[in-house]
Amino acid sequence: MAGKQITDTIAAIATPPGTGGVAMLRISGPQARAIARVLTSQKTFKPNTILPATIHAKSGTELDRGMIAFFKNPQSYTGDDIIEIYCHGSYFLAQQILGECLRAGARLAGPGEFTKRAFLAGKIDLTQVEAVAEMIAAKSSTAAQLALKHLEGDVSRAIRGIRDTLVKTLAEIEACLDYPDELAEPPRASLTKQIQRYKKTIVQLLADAHAGLIIRDGIRIALVGKTNVGKSSLFNRLAKASKAIVTDVHGTTRDYLEAAITIKDVALTLVDTAGIRDSQDQIEIMGIARSKEHTKTADLVLFVLDATTGIAEEDKKIIAELPPDKTIWIINKADENSSVANAPQDALYVSAKTGQGLAALEKTILKQMDVAKIDMSKHIYISSLRQKEQLIRIQEIFERALNSIKTVGYIDLLAVELKEAVVALGEITGDEVSEEVITHIFSNFCVGK
Ligand SMILES: Nc1nc2c(ncn2[C@@H]2O[C@H](COP(=O)(O)OP(=O)(O)OP(=O)(O)O)[C@@H](O)[C@H]2O)c(=O)[nH]1
Ligand SMILES: [Mg+2]
After folding, report:
1. What is the pLDDT of residue 187?
2. What residues have CB less than 8 Å from 430, skipping those under 6 apart?
């Protein structure tokens, strides 16, 4: 896939739409410098140097005074010549300059096309391509840190390590198949050991992928319970904002509200829902239906009880519909009563009013999310569904290979299976990948990256 000759020059605005201090346009390809000469006062360019420049239209009309930078091939992001133009942060102005770039011979870049060129030039592999998208979309500092690990190639190193040795083993096996009389088959015991070791690495990567995906995407946590227990008060506390209306009137919350929050740098979405009770009010009934829907679809349910009422009949009806493996019991208003009969041992006593117990609640949430023990220095947390699915396939291939070793004449079967594993591993890093997969990955990118 790498090493394709690039002949056309692409251009795009790299900064987001809207108004900002500065906007940046990027031009990549053999014509980059020629286009910059047409549109700016700079005629010569020193690599890796930013220079002041007057930016003008092809007609000569001055558009802005900005800066221009040049990155010479192959030491640039894409591997081609790159020109970056920095102008004042009016999106209108940036679009006008982009129009001039196109008039001067550039083509509008597609989504992620700069990164695609970097991949095709062999500058980065496919896991790093995905890491670029992950970095741009990071919703918390932990997510950004994880993306950086992937960008630095921790996934690639692990996968390539397995693939490289597997290629050697495969070569040994194939040599035996070609010269059965001269070469002895590699002993079953050592083959078994090797594949078992690789399988273990894959199983570990899959086990940690759960936490990786949570770090990347966060989870949805719904506050659920009967009316007036303090769901909205807790929601406001955790969101550190007075978003939801709080009153002592039962049925205050009618619709659901969402807040993007972070707990210890892990991003999540908190959902406040309408209190569940028997109601005749048409609007409230619709709100309650939504609460029940959230109970089902949330990744985690915070079931809120009122310490001053204890477990009432209304609570019992809600309890019957709670998903037991993803529910945390919370007894709110613990400032008024710190013991509720028949509550589970692990129920958390909190107070939205005083803040009591909220630190413990945050800790429990992280524990339940499986991210309490994250250690990026020791583990690799894959956070791409594509990579995860591929790993599941590889695990299955290794399982088949381990069974094959036990059969008579195992060597032929093993050659086929190891070949399959080498290809599947190569698909993760992009060493072997179809155009279809590449198109799919880049379709999720933004233009200008
Ligand atoms: N003492 C005490 N009162 C609280 C606490 N949390 C909430 N309240 C009070 O309980 C009442 C109901 O609070 P909300 O947050 O509106 O309760 P809710 O569960 O969202 O109620 P609905 O929206 O009607 O379902 C308000 O008067 C709050 O001030 C708490 O921790 N301690
Ligand atoms: Mg409420």
Report:
1. 85
2. 1, 119, 125, 126, 127, 129, 438
CA dist 13 and 1 (Å) reads 27
Residue nearest to atom 26 of ligand 1 (CA): 248
Q: Is 226 in the pocket of ligand 1 (CB under 6 A)?
A: no
What's the rounded Cα separation, in Å, for the pair 310 and 42? Answer: 76
Burial of residue 386 (number of CB atoms within 10 Å: 0-12, 13-18, 19+):
middle
Best of 223, 234, 235, 246 for a ligand 1 pocket test (most atoms within 8 Å of beta carbon): 246
| Residue among 233, 235, 236, 272 whose CB has most ligand 1 atoms within 8 A, to mutate | 233
Bridging pattern class, strands 220-225 and 300-306: parallel
- Of ligand 1's listed atoms, the one at least distance from the Cα of 236 is 15
pLDDT digits (tens, 9 = 90+) for 134-157: 999 999 999 999 999 999 999 999
Please work out whether the CB of residue 246 comes within 6 Å of at least one atom of ligand 1: yes
Give every CB contact of residue 81 below 8 A, 6+ residues apart in sequence: 28, 29, 30, 32, 33, 70, 71, 72, 73
Amino acid identity for residue 154 in this structure: D
> For 358-412, what is each residue's pLDDT tens digit?
999 999 999 998 888 889 999 999 999 999 999 999 999 999 999 999 988 888 8
pTM for this entry: 0.84
Residue nearest atom 30 of ligand 1, based on CA coordinates: 333
Q: DSSP label at 446?
A: P
The verdict on the CB of residue 275 being under 6 Å from ligand 1 is: yes
Strands (E), 288-354: 300-306, 327-332, 348-349
Q: What count of other Cβ atoms lies within 10 Å of the Cβ of residue 115? A: 23
Residue 329, token pair as written in the block:
């019991």
Judge if the beta carbon of residue 248 lies within 6 A of ligand 1.
Answer: yes
Contact 398, 203 (CB under 8 A): no
Q: Which atom of ligand 1 is nearest to the CA of 229?
A: 19
Ligand nearest to the CA of residue 303, numbered in listed order: 1
Pairing of strands 348-349, 327-332: parallel
pLDDT in tens, 204-235: 999 999 999 999 988 999 999 999 999 999 99
Kindly give the parts of the chain with pLDDT less than 70. Answer: 1-5
| 8 Å CB contact between 54 and 61 | no
Length of the chain: 449
The first and second tokens of residue 264, run together, are: 């210890």
